[in-house]
Amino acid sequence: MLSGLNHLTLAVVDLQRSLHFYHELLRLQLEATWDNGAYLSLPGLWLCLSLDPLRDPVPVVDYTHYAFSTHARDFDALVERLRGAGVQEWRDNLSEGASYYFLDPDGYKLEVHVGDLASRLQACRDKPYSGMRFYP
User: Fold this and answer.
1) Model pTM?
2) Which residue positions does the secretion signal occupy (predicted)?
3) With bands split at pLDDT 50, 70 and 90, how would you rate the model's confidence at 2?
């Protein structure tokens, strides 16, 4: 039986650039580095950056992305910091709660979101998606 998400590993082409992005800009806790990688963390998340110079930089055109939580009081400052650093946006927010969708230096699709599963489910109960069902 699965008990949770263990870790997320992202292949990166420039480790120092990615370390700067995740540690300095997004402010994840730096836990360890080595020649070809790094471990960073947030409460409940272990992120591994793994150097892979052969990573295909062609952006994926689907909705797959990784979302980080933030508090409402921190949202505007975080978005301004990202915009000030010239981070590219990839989508407008179309759902409940404040969200900002952006790309990391390797083109991974990321989001910062104010809210959680409970707030999303409540918004969906108030205005359900087509064909939506809820389970106990």
Assistant:
1) 0.86
2) none
3) low
User: Which CATH superfamily hosts domain 56-135?
Assistant: 2,3-Dihydroxybiphenyl 1,2-Dioxygenase, domain 1 (3.10.180.10)
The domain ranges of the chain are 1-55, 56-135
Q: Is 111 a catalytic residue?
A: yes
- Give 113: exposed, middle or buried? Use CB within 10 Å, 0-12, 13-18, 19+: buried
pLDDT, tens digit, for every residue of 18-35?
A: 999 999 999 999 999 999
| Top CATH class, 1-55 | alpha beta
Q: Which residue in 24, 31, 89, 111 is the catalytic one? A: 111
